[in-house]
Amino acid sequence: MNKLRALILAGLALAALAALPARAHNAGVSTSRLTISERTVSVEINALGLDYEKAAGVRLIEVGSGVVNAVALAVMAPSVLTYVSDHVSVLAGGQPCSRMAATARPADTHVLVTIAWTCPSGGGDLRYHVTLFQDVDPAARHVAVIATEHGEREFVLDRTAPEIDLSGAGSSTLQLVGRFIRAGIEHIFLGYDHIAFLLAVILWGRSLWPLVKVVTAFTLAHSLTLCLAVLDIVRLPSSVVEPLIAATIVFVAAENFFVHDIRKRWRATFVLGLVHGFGFAGALREYGLSTDAVAPALTAFNIGVEIGQVAIVGLIFPLLLLSDRLGGGAAMHEQRHPAVVYTCSAAILACGLYWLMERTVFA
How far is CA 171 from CA 85, 152, 269, 286, 292, in A? Predict the structure, then answer.
């Protein structure tokens, strides 16, 4: 009886990992593209509609899909533009430049704000100051791309460095790689649906090699579609991708009740992983990559995602082995105790069905 209780507790602990995703995610990465003509600075700012909802207290997006509603944005544009004006500025010699008219328009799940400043001649060096969404997420980051006749320069602004000199040299390749490795790790740890998928496909695993094949198949698949999407060879809207990701979670969680051998599951994981790559692409596109930055950023982001996946499996697999020992499954090398897998799969299935409904019926 004690073993049964321990087994159930182990299953519930693993199920809690599947339900963890219910917490709110942090602000996305906002970006801006700047062009400078003499003393006029024109900027297009790209940020998630969801982030404006949190920060500016407006209603912009359609529930489930996250797509920005054009009518809602037209009504709430003054509030959005006021928020941007309060958190984005151009300075000349430390003094604010004059802001010109601004506009806001929808772009799928994002809002594009176009704004310009005119600065007095002889007013000193121009600087760009951004604190977007730091009031709701202190870790919020902003990527600024400055377009010049000599090419593009990229800068990263955050709470510790909210301002840049518009004549600066930009980020080095090493800094770029490091930033996108971190971004990939963060995205997989904050991507609750990706974590739920990974957990579901490894629940029956009792040895290392089948798990390696499953994780590798997932990596290859999402890397392929991530590259195709970011390079604009194949692109799917988030209103299609997000429900499909939820459907893959429902599939693998339900499959656990009928298929106990994961040795050949890498094939299905590869096919379903193709869908998740389009989801990763949406996150990577938030950075507004310049042409020169695409190759190193893609590579680094994939490395970061893989590091995150290995870390997640490394955390979960010992818990699965512990559940075997608690439930007497260590003596049965052929499979894991069904109670653990069924408990976790039921929790993941419930989450998947909820996300699927949220992203389709209630979108």
Answer: 26, 11, 37, 17, 12
